Amino acid sequence: MKKHLTNRDKQAQETKRKLIESAHQVFLQNGFEKTTISQIIKTAGVGYGTAYVYFKNKHELFIAIMEEVMQQFFEVAHQKFRPDTAAEASSQIKNQVREYMNLAIQNRPIMKVVNDAIGSSDRIEAEWENIRNEFIRGITSDINHSQEKQLVNTEFDPAITAKSWYYMNEMFMWQLVDADDNHDNLEHIVEQLSLFYTSALYNG
Amino acid sequence: MKKHLTNRDKQAQETKRKLIESAHQVFLQNGFEKTTISQIIKTAGVGYGTAYVYFKNKHELFIAIMEEVMQQFFEVAHQKFRPDTAAEASSQIKNQVREYMNLAIQNRPIMKVVNDAIGSSDRIEAEWENIRNEFIRGITSDINHSQEKQLVNTEFDPAITAKSWYYMNEMFMWQLVDADDNHDNLEHIVEQLSLFYTSALYNG
DNA sequence: AATGTCAATGACATAATGTCAACGAAATGA
DNA sequence: TCATTTCGTTGACATTATGTCATTGACATT
Known about the structure:
The structure is a homodimer. Chain A contains nine helices and no strands. By secondary structure, chain A is an all-alpha fold. Chain A folds into two domains: 7-56, Arc Repressor Mutant, subunit A; 65-201, Tetracycline Repressor, domain 2 (Orthogonal Bundle), CATH 1.10.357. In chain A, helix 1 crosses helix 2 and helix 4 runs parallel beside helix 7. The longest helix of chain A is centred in the first third of the chain and has 28 residues, at 7-34. The first copy, chain A, is elongated, with a radius of gyration of 21 Å. The N and C termini of chain A lie far apart (66 Å). The model of chain A has no long low-confidence stretch (mean pLDDT 94). Chain A binds a DNA duplex through helix 1 and helix 3.
């Protein structure tokens, strides 16, 4: 049974911190694939085996780095919206899309690496899948409520419609992350995506 | 200057064919990542270096295998539709979606590997990007025509709308490829996707 | 002070890639 | 027919990365 943090414990924490920080730096510089454990431990100034004391492999190390951004996405995902009119829906949807895209753009460097990493590792892809499902769950619930309020036609299957809508957004998000010149057309994309969605569900 | 195929040439052709065939088999069995050159050449019964005579690396070898399926997708992509009424549009869209999904399902084993491979290789991703762009180009042109015929509101940006619509479809396609139990709900998905799209664009 | 614990280490075994000098059978031509 | 050239084929090699593990020694405990 341990009571207080010993110096040894602090030292260990510090080593882990150095590893994460160095990994972050190296991942941003070289991308996911090209980054090696050797580069990371060299930057951190620790021995090779040390990395494996704290992380099972490169993927787990990267997931530790992803966590911060992931958290931000979860927060956006949890913002439910409960419009009472079609006009309200339109405006709220537009805001949520804008937040989602801005979040990605503001974290562009790390999001680029995340994009790499998703392709390279089932483990990391599963991690992103969590975010995706969180969004889809939220949207599904939103559609259900809108249907109960007679704002949306009940012939729409909430789960499938939610997926469709989320996928549209995610693909554009990755595209914004990739490109470097999207400050001008971001708002246009937000408008068009929202128009598509609200035209389908909240008109008619 | 060569005139006729020498025996040597035929032998070389045969070696290349054996490599492609063996690679196909091994890729289906082990997926893209886990397949190694050693496994392929062992199955083909040729020497290690031989693989590198015909293919720069594993990726290029896989692209040779993808080509057949790619061709089929290009064919579906090139089917333009030019509806004169909203009802016609709805029915034609539904058919095209169904064809796209069926094509993927019928080639499920290799499409699973393609999905792996896209994540693992920029070269292969670029190859798939060609198909994607071909679809998007076609859809964009379709929307333009529908707008000229006053079937679709001109506030829709054809390029962005086309991308949104295509992305929706592609994501569901990959999902159908992944899962094994989609014979029952395929038609439901087709209905819902088409409903989403036609509700947004062709209703008013 | 003696003993136990555990963070840290780097050499090793393993595995995959891409290259290349050399082999030898087929093609050429005299 | 035989000598010479061409070129498809080969596997050993150098290279590079991964994950493991026995060992070490500084720190904690008694």
